[in-house]
Specification:
Layout: H1 7-24, E1 48-51, H2 53-59, H3 61-102, H4 109-169, E2 174-177, H5 199-214
Helix pairs in contact: 2-5, 3-4
Length: 228
């Protein structure tokens, strides 16, 4: 009866022995070994560059041309304002003369009344002229500002398109603005190597056609040069 007690234990040991043989035995000729996982191809590094948009904007010949056009308009506005001021100065001289006449005790009453009436009319005219002059300056100033803003937006769009075209042609993944600031007014780029700065190359490209044209001509003078 005691022998039956060891039968379950013997069966368990026999099962473990069979499993161990299965694990350690070499695979049969018909069994294919499992293949190792395929390695991923190496990821190429990102191609990154930076450009100073502010420098491009200031150095772009179109910016200078537009600024000269705006200066011409500003000079014209100032000329018109000065002409109106000259008229106001003439009226002011008349008012001063009429004031001296009214202060003369020898002036006859009827004449004094006529001088006073004329003086009041000229004074009202001067007030209206000065109001019109200021309105003229305000309206023209706003028009120039709106025109300048629209033209400057156009220049920025031209520069941006040129940068995008160059980035696509030269397979750049990212192009950052070196002149950009964070919300804390801190430069976005704290450091970058000169080898990644494409500003000079981009500026040369933007001004290339204009440089060829100006070799045979003269630069357009700035109407505000030499003026206060």
């Amino acid at each position: 009866m005691r022998l039956y007690r060891f039968i379950p234990l013997l069966l368990a040991l026999a099962t473990l022995s069979c499993r161990e043989k299965v694990r350690t035995s070499p695979p049969s000729s018909g069994t294919q070994p499992s293949s190792a996982p395929a390695a991923f191809p190496p990821v190429p590094p990102l191609k990154v560059a930076s450009i100073d948009i502010q420098r491009l904007f200031k150095g772009y010949y179109r910016t200078e041309e537009i600024q000269k056009e705006l200066n011409v308009e500003q000079v014209a506005i100032k000329g018109e304002s000065d002409a109106r001021l000259e008229t106001l100065r003439s009226i002011e001289t008349e008012l001063q003369n009429s004031a001296r006449q009214l202060a003369d005790p020898a002036l006859a009453g009827s004449v004094k009344e006529k001088v006073a009436q004329d003086r009041a009319l000229r004074r009202e005219e001067a007030i209206a002229l000065e109001r019109a002059r200021r309105e003229f300056i305000d309206i023209k100033g706003k028009q120039i500002n709106e025109k300048a803003a629209a033209q400057m937006r156009g220049i920025v769009a031209e520069i941006r398109k040129s940068i995008e075209d160059m980035a696509r042609q030269e397979d750049y993944d990212y192009v950052f603005d070196r002149s950009g600031l964070t919300t804390s007014q801190v430069p976005f780029f704290l450091f970058s190597t000169e080898s990644t700065d494409l500003t000079a190359a981009m500026l040369e490209k933007l001004n290339r056609d204009h440089s060829m044209q100006t070799k045979t001509g003269e630069a357009t003078p700035d109407p505000l040069e030499g003026k206060d």
